[in-house]
Amino acid sequence: MSLLKKLGITKRTTPTMTYKSRDIVLVPFPFNSRTGFKKRPAVIISNENHFKEDG
User: Contact at 8 Å (CB) between 2 and 37?
Assistant: First the structure.
């Protein structure tokens, strides 16, 4: 099984959740050997205005 499949990543994914700045999410970080991964917390630092569409 490929690492991407183990991580639940497909080539075509659509976001099902929206995040705000300072949200904490769990992100799968792969091991150096690429044999697996461990979920680690991460903080969303992007500004909400970055994702707003023009028009």
Answer: no
